[in-house]
Write a structure and sequence with these properties.
Largest sheet: 8 strands, parallel, barrel
Bound molecules: beta-D-fucopyranose
Number of helices: 13
Strand order of the largest sheet: 1-2-3-4-5-7-10-11
Structural class: alpha/beta
Length: about 450
């Protein structure tokens, strides 16, 4: 493991999404989805989540005390534009306060405009299957950056277009719960058009803003290293999930298979940076019964370390992905990376190995400028509800008590030193759920 330093002014923070932390979001498609029994584990609901809408000041104090110098969060579209073309001055003033609070604490904001949720009126008019949603989203992006662009330099249009399409339109596990490959492709096209339009509008009025998109990239390796059919399906997964959007953006036009779902083009340049959300790798095995999923069955590697959600811990994947992204010739921000680990048993090692992989990638020429751990507080993890605990800080949705886990202290050291701590000692692995503790030792 290298002990090198990260580049100067490296951004170190955590990432959240409005619906997962704020509480009180009742005017979007996710809230409606949560009301139906069986959609969310334990029938959990996103209200109150972390009550972050009301607690953001003390939450940011805590993150600043953990030496984080940046923070990624999302705006809730349904609060800001509760009805078509009607913008809420109360919601805009709230997010101004949020941004100002970050600036006052010396934390660089990174703002996401769309992180999975859609206002009810958008969902009712066809969601991202309706071509007009691209234009409506661009109008929202335009208005918001006019109002708030003076307070944040970094803007992410859409979080993880492929995940939206896959979970909502292939697996049917997220709203609107469809299983329709054609619809999934149309949704991707509209999301891309929405990004292209938003990028052009924002840059026309505010050329100084840095605008990008958060890509969820996974490693897909063949289950049988030498099995030609496994290799073929793994390569197909890589092309469809990892390459389609990046290539379309690079070329300013749709690439296959999106070309089968519509016509669209964009400007030759439509990203000022790459946002990378990296979590895990998947092994893919050819299976004739998996026609709806490109004939690829995802399997877990035998004996691999796995998170509470059974995702493999695979730090090399971050290295491999960052190296591959060098060809984009754009600054890269790791906009999400984290692990569901309620006992904090694996997270310290996860943090160290992923941060080390990122450093190695930087040394190999990947222009990485920041890292945002997913996430600061345990929160409402979409269909997994509150059971999947991704927080550096435990957050009890009933008492709202925040309890930093040992890895919050470890991450604080990394943020403060701007490198991996020398001779780092891993905190003892907790065998029981962590008891309430005071703030972590930061020295
Ligand atoms: C990402 C999402 C984020 C969270 C993490 C665990 O795909 O962007 O909201 O759910 O996964």
């Amino acid at each position: 493991m290298t002990n090198g330093r990260f580049p100067e002014n490296f951004l170190w923070g955590t990432a959240t999404a409005a619906h997962q932390v704020e509480g009180g979001n009742h005017a979007n498609d996710w809230w409606a989805w949560e009301q139906v029994a069986g959609h969310i584990k334990n029938d959990d609901r996103s209200d109150p989540a972390c009550e972050h809408y009301d607690r953001f000041l003390s939450d940011f104090d805590l993150l600043r005390s953990l030496h984080q110098n940046a923070h990624r969060f999302s705006l809730e579209w349904s609060r800001i534009e509760p009805a078509p073309g009607e913008f809420s001055s109360t919601a805009l003033a709230h997010y101004r306060d949020v941004l100002q609070a970050l600036r006052e604490r010396g934390m660089e904001p990174v703002v996401t405009l769309h992180h999975f949720t859609n206002p009810t009126w958008i969902a009712k008019s066809g969601g991202w299957e309706a071509p007009e949603t691209a234009e409506r989203f661009a109008r929202f992006a335009d208005r918001v950056t006019d109002e708030l662009g003076d307070l944040s330099r970094f803007w992410i249009t859409v979080n993880e277009p492929t995940v939206i399409a896959y979970q909502g339109y292939v697996r049917g596990e997220w709203p609107p719960g469809k299983r329709d490959l054609g619809a999934a492709l149309r949704v991707l096209v509209t999301l891309l058009r929405g990004h292209w339009m938003a990028y052009e509008r924002i840059k026309a009025r505010h050329p100084q803003l840095q605008v990008g998109l958060a890509h969820h990239l996974r490693i897909f390796d063949p289950a049988g290293r030498f099995a030609p059919q496994d290799r073929a399906v793994a390569a197909a997964f890589g092309r469809v999930f990892n390459e389609t959007i990046l290539q379309s953006l690079r070329r300013g036009r749709l690439v296959f298979p999106l070309t089968r779902a519509g016509k669209a083009s964009g400007p030759p340049r439509s990203q000022d940076f790459i946002g990378l959300n990296y979590y895990t790798r998947e092994l893919v095995r050819f299976n004739v019964h998996y026609g709806a999923e490109l004939f690829g069955e995802r399997v877990l590697p035998a004996g691999a370390a796995r998170s509470d959600l059974t995702w493999e811990l695979y730090p090399d994947g971050l290295y491999r992905t960052l190296l591959a992204l060098r060809r984009e010739r754009l600054p890269i921000y790791v906009t999400e990376n984290g692990i569901a680990d309620g006992r904090d048993a694996m997270r310290p090692d996860f943090l160290l190995t992923h941060v080390a992989a990122m450093l190695q990638a930087i040394e190999a020429g990947a222009p990485v400028r920041g890292y945002f751990h997913w996430t600061c507080f345990d929160n409402f993890e979409w269909a997994e509800g509150y059971g999947a605990k991704f927080g550096l800080i435990a957050c009890d949705p009933v008492t709202q008590e925040r309890r930093p886990r040992p890895s919050a202290g470890l991450y604080a050291q990394i943020c403060r030193l701007n490198r991996l701590p020398a001779n780092v000692e891993l905190p003892p692995v907790p065998q029981q759920p962590v008891e309430p503790a005071g703030p972590p030792d930061l020295r």
